[in-house]
């Protein structure tokens, strides 16, 4: 099977590249072995919240020069401010076309989202059902908040969140209450707490009769509040619509808060991207795994997968976006780190004793977080020092950045995925023009 572009990995980096390629009319295939990191994410898009030095960033796109100075090999330093901004704006527009509305603050500052612990994390884009707490005054416009959970639900403990919120000076004058609501038909549901997760609750609340009953209980439990905060327990694709309906039934302003995995807010992004990609005509091979490939004359010619052992897949261009250790895009042995599919060159790891900070909750990055595949400025990797010109890397497999400490995870994944797609599209257009000119010349002779 022959494609224009083959993308290895179905996370936000791989899917961003695949969608952009498919939009440009390229015959594209995505091979995704398993769940992506989106199933664990807040569903907000972090661009840059902290510099590597630990200094907080308020305006992410204005901080690129400082970032490049501190971390010259950082993926953002390779792409530059303009290309990253273009990629993030493209992503926002593309998701809007899919019905997922992501927005930033009008003043171009990061905003804060509240976590299930009642702490705040800075981010760039949040979904329409997530309350954006502005940096200048976290509690702006709020005199009362209600933190609500469901009876028997273990993944959000509102009292803990309320205690932490109450400690913040910005919330000194805000009334914070907690409440527990019983899910309709709770008595008939399985009593094993492992089976009472956000995704199970979302299935119950998709039924409108049960949503109406839930709305009544919510009104009784909360009374009055400027903002009602609920864990993300509303459907994958239709979550935002369900919340709108619930707001209409209760008269409350309701916001969602990401929970322990499975995170419905993250899954919502993945589902929307996958379905958009398929509508564009892209091929998605899920549950398959790329095992290796043939490299000839500095180019990757074909790859082999677990399910299509003897049928090689070939393409003009390839992207590897298999994620970090978490998604098995990188693997660690006792004294070295590997990229398991092709054995791509890695950033030289220091001695094992220097892979991590002595304190787990250190403000400094754990060095292993910045390990990964090393690339040139076009994001081409190499093997034993030889560049592979038609293979690109994007997302968490890349070295030289720490998505957790910097708060840059989805931002790097989207911008590198998009940047690679733009290069593939240009190369493809160039080769088509070349072929056309050659055939015109032949015809003229
Ligand atoms: C717990 C957690 C929470 C996070 N929260 C946030 C957040 O709130 N906001 C934010 O901006 N960022 C967040 N991040 C960071 C961000 O989610 C990641 O940096 C980003 O999603 C990485 O995307 P990716 O596409 O590079 O990799 P992944 O999402 O890891 O996807 C890799 C894909 O490759 C597939 N794969 C691996 N090996 C193979 C193979 N051999 N063949 C085929 N497929 C393969 C995997 O199955 C997976 O589908 C979080 C990360 C984690 C781990």
UniProtKB/TrEMBL annotation:
Q: What class of enzyme is it?
A: oxidoreductase
Q: What chemistry does it catalyse, as a reaction equation?
A: a quinone + sn-glycerol 3-phosphate = dihydroxyacetone phosphate + a quinol
Q: Which cofactor does it need?
A: FMN
Q: In which pathway does it act?
A: Polyol metabolism; glycerol degradation via glycerol kinase pathway; glycerone phosphate from sn-glycerol 3-phosphate (anaerobic route): step 1/1
Q: Which Pfam families match?
A: FAD_binding_2
Keyword tags:
Flavoprotein, FMN, Oxidoreductase
Gene Ontology molecular function, alphabetical: glycerol-3-phosphate dehydrogenase (quinone) activity
This protein's GO cellular component annotations are: glycerol-3-phosphate dehydrogenase (FAD) complex
Q: What is its EC number?
A: 1.1.5.3
- What job does this protein perform? Conversion of glycerol 3-phosphate to dihydroxyacetone. Uses fumarate or nitrate as electron acceptor.
Protein name as annotated: Anaerobic glycerol-3-phosphate dehydrogenase subunit B
Source species: Photobacterium aquae
Q: Which gene encodes it?
A: glpB
């Amino acid at each position: 099977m022959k494609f224009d572009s083959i993308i290895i990995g179905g996370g936000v980096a791989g899917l961003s590249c695949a969608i952009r390629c498919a939009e440009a009319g390229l015959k594209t295939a995505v091979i995704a072995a398993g769940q992506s990191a989106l199933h664990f994410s807040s569903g907000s898009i972090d661009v840059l919240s902290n510099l590597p030095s630990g200094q907080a960033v308020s305006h992410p796109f204005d901080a690129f020069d400082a970032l490049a100075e501190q971390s010259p090999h950082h993926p953002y330093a390779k792409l530059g401010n303009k290309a990253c901004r273009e990629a993030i704006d493209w992503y926002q527009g593309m998701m809007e076309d899919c019905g997922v509305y992501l927005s930033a603050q009008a003043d171009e500052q990061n905003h804060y989202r509240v976590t299930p612990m009642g702490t705040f994390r800075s981010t760039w884009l949040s979904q329409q059902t997530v309350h954006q707490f502005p940096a200048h005054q976290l509690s702006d416009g709020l005199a009362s908040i209600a933190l609500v959970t469901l009876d028997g639900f273990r993944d959000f403990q509102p009292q803990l969140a309320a205690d932490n919120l109450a400690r913040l000076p910005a919330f000194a004058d805000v009334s914070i209450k907690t409440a527990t609501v019983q899910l309709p038909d709770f008595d008939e549901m399985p009593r094993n707490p492992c089976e009472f997760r956000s995704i199970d609750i979302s299935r119950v609340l998709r039924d409108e009769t049960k949503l109406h009953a839930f709305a009544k209980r919510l009104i009784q439990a909360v009374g009055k509040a400027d903002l009602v905060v609920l864990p993300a327990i509303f459907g994958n694709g239709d979550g935002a619509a369900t919340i709108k309906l619930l707001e209409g039934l209760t008269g409350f302003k309701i916001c969602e808060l990401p929970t322990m995995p499975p995170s419905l807010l993250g899954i919502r992004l993945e589902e929307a991207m996958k379905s958009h990609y398929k509508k564009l005509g892209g091929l998605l091979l899920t549950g398959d795994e790329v095992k290796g490939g043939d490299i000839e004359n500095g180019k990757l010619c074909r790859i082999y997968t677990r399910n299509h052992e003897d049928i090689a897949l070939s393409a003009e261009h390839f992207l590897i976006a298999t994620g970090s250790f978490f998604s098995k895009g990188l693997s660690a042995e006792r004294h070295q780190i590997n990229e398991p599919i092709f054995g791509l060159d890695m950033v030289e790891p220091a001695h094992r004793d220097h892979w991590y900070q002595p304190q787990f909750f250190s403000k400094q990055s754990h060095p292993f977080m910045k390990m990964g595949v090393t690339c040139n400025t076009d994001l081409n990797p190499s093997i034993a020092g030889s560049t592979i010109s038609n293979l690109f890397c994007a997302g968490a497999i890349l070295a030289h950045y720490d998505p957790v400490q910097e708060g840059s995870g989805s931002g790097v994944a989207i911008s590198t995925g998009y940047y690679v797609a733009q290069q593939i599209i240009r190369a493809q257009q160039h080769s088509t023009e070349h072929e056309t000119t050659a055939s015109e010349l032949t015809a003229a002779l």
